[in-house]
Amino acid sequence: MSNTYSLKKDGSKKLSANFKVSEFACKDGSDSIIIDLELVKVIQKIRDHFGKAITINSAYRNATYNKKIGGASKSQHIYGKAADIVVSGVSPEKVAQYAEYLMPNKGGIGLYPSFTHIDVRANRARWKNNGKEIAVSGFAGYKEPTKKLETGNDIIWELMNGKHKIKIDDVNKAVKALDKAKDNPDFMSLYWILYKVVNGNG
Ligand SMILES: [Zn+2]
Q1: CA 138–ligand 1 middle distance (angstroms)
Q2: What value does the CA radius of gyration of the chain take, rounded to a whole number of Å?
Q3: Distance from residue 173's CA to the centre of ligand 1 (Å)
Q4: Beta-carbon-side half-sphere exposure of residue 140 (alpha carbons within 13 Å)
Q5: DSSP sequence for 21-43
Q6: Residue pair 13/21 in contact by the 8 Å Cβ criterion
Q7: Distance (Å) from CA 58 to ligand 1 centroid
Q8: Most buried of 121, 147, 161, 162, CB within 10 angstroms?
């Protein structure tokens, strides 16, 4: 969803834990700012992951400014869906790799020598630009760290936040499932045990 803000009125308004409206403003100083909130979510996730400050070099661009700086006519920056970011002390490539992990099947990721372009378009686009834009297949390289599951809470947390979502709406079922699963070190086995118990076949 895109919102329109006023730099003057809303500039200091917080959009997420670490980002405020003014950081997304057009660099020509104009007042109107379009921001897609999905973009804010993705950038905040990158911020949280690296735990380092992010500088937004350029986010929203009105059509006039975009044309002036030679941006693509259908640039996602015009729609408030793109940001060129620098994560303090992290290479643009590492940022691209983590963005790839966050958006494997959608969005735009462009790797530039000194920043990473991130956008939340519906389709998937990947490119490198060292003076000339070249389409690439993607930015593989980030691997989710394997986390040791220690407690029942960890297991439920993994299930709720991972790809394998199951609904645990009955505490007794969850306790029973966790009791059955507690000696099993393999995550997929844990998942199936929980799934069966919660769904009534365990
Ligand atoms: Zn860009």
Answers
A1: 16
A2: 21
A3: 48
A4: 1
A5: GGGGS-TT--SEEEEEHHHHHHH
A6: yes
A7: 7
A8: 121
Distance 152 CA to ligand 1 centre (A): 43
Residue 153 in this model has a pLDDT that exceeds 70: no
Q: What angle do CA 82, 90, 10 make, to 5 degrees?
A: 40
| Dist. CA 97 → ligand 1 center (Å) | 16
Percentage, residues of the chain above pLDDT 90: 68
Which CATH number is 2-135's, of 3.30.1380.10, 3.90.1170.40, 3.30.70.1520, 1.10.10.10?
3.30.1380.10
- Distance from the CA of 12 to the center of ligand 1, in angstroms? 23
Beta bridge partners of 119: 82, 108
Please write the tens of the pLDDT for every residue from 10-28: 999 999 999 999 999 999 9
Ligand 1 centre to CA of 128 (Å) is: 11
* 123 Cα–ligand 1 center, Å: 16
The position carrying tokens 């045990």 is: 193
